[in-house]
């Protein structure tokens, strides 16, 4: 359990470090949500991932579908 949480944290932190997440299109308001009965989640929205720096190989690997060499 702890190993899975640590791995997930590392992956999310790496993605946020290497890429900028920008909205592409309609940005839902805070009141837009999907009520599925017991759970409530944000409404779906479109976004784009852009490299923060052009000299990072990791950013290009993440945009291409993952870093297989890691």
UniProtKB/TrEMBL annotation:
Keyword Signal included in the entry's annotation: yes
Protein name: Uncharacterized protein
Keyword Membrane included in the entry's annotation: no
Tree of life domain: Eukaryota
Transmembrane segments: none
Signal sequence interval, chain numbering: 1-18
GO molecular function terms attached to this record: heme binding; iron ion binding; monooxygenase activity; oxidoreductase activity, acting on paired donors, with incorporation or reduction of molecular oxygen
Keywords of the record: Signal
């Amino acid at each position: 359990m702890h190993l899975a949480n640590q791995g997930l944290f590392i992956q999310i932190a790496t993605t946020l470090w290497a890429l900028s997440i920008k909205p592409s299109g309609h940005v839902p308001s805070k009141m837009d949500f999907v009520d599925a009965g017991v759970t409530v989640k944000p409404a779906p929205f479109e976004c784009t991932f852009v490299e923060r720096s052009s000299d990072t190989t990791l950013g290009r690997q993440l945009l291409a579908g993952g870093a297989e060499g890691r």
